[in-house]
């Protein structure tokens, strides 16, 4: 019986100690106490990065572009080629008999049709 009382007394002491410690940590000081303390203004100073001016920003952007050459569209660059026409251009230019042209067109249409049929049959099964 004595042992139980001792244990419960220890537990109460420990709980009280924890409670006091918690209150001490979370204690909010009064305004009177705060006014007595001296506060160093240097602790409140924060370095705020100022926004760059428009001129500075544009100068930085231009400095990054110095290595890059002038913009030229791809088509314009390809048109400056030397050494004749490409195969596609030659084929368009080529004079073919009407029958051969029609045959070629029908052949390409059939190939496209076959490819589309194969591509369309991906799902094999039941729809939900």
From TrEMBL:
Which keywords, in A-to-Z order, does the entry hold?
Answer: Nucleus, Protein transport, Ribosome biogenesis, Transport
Subcellular localization:
Nucleus, Nucleolus
Write out the biased-composition intervals (Basic residues).
Answer: 1-13, 110-128
Q: Where is the composition biased (Basic and acidic residues)?
A: 14-26, 53-70, 100-109
Q: Where is the composition biased (Polar residues)?
A: 79-88
Q: Where is this region: Disordered?
A: 1-34, 47-128
Major site of localization recorded for this protein: nucleus
Q: Does the keyword Hydrolase apply?
A: no
Q: Could you tell me the superkingdom of the organism this chain comes from?
A: Eukaryota
Which GO BP terms sit in this record? protein transport; ribosomal large subunit biogenesis; ribosomal large subunit export from nucleus
The record's GO CC annotations read: nucleolus
User: Function, please?
Assistant: Required for 60S pre-ribosomal subunits export to the cytoplasm.
Q: Give the record's family classification.
A: Belongs to the SDA1 family.
Write the protein's name.
Protein SDA1
What is the species listed in this Swiss-Prot or TrEMBL entry? Arachis hypogaea (Peanut)
What lineage, starting at the top, does this entry show?
Answer: Eukaryota, Viridiplantae, Streptophyta, Embryophyta, Tracheophyta
């Amino acid at each position: 019986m004595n042992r139980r009382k001792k244990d419960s007394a220890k537990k109460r002491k420990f709980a009280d100690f924890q409670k006091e410690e918690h209150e001490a940590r979370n204690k909010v000081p009064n305004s009177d106490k705060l006014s007595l303390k001296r506060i160093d203004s240097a602790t409140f100073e924060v370095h705020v990065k100022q926004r760059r001016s428009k001129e500075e920003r544009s100068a930085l952007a231009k400095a990054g572009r110095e290595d890059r050459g002038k913009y030229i569209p791809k088509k314009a660059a390809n048109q400056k080629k030397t050494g004749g026409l490409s195969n596609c251009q030659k084929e368009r230019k080529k004079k073919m008999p009407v029958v051969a042209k029609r045959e070629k067109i029908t052949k390409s249409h059939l190939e496209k049709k076959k490819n589309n049929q194969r591509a369309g049959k991906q799902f094999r099964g039941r729809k939900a």
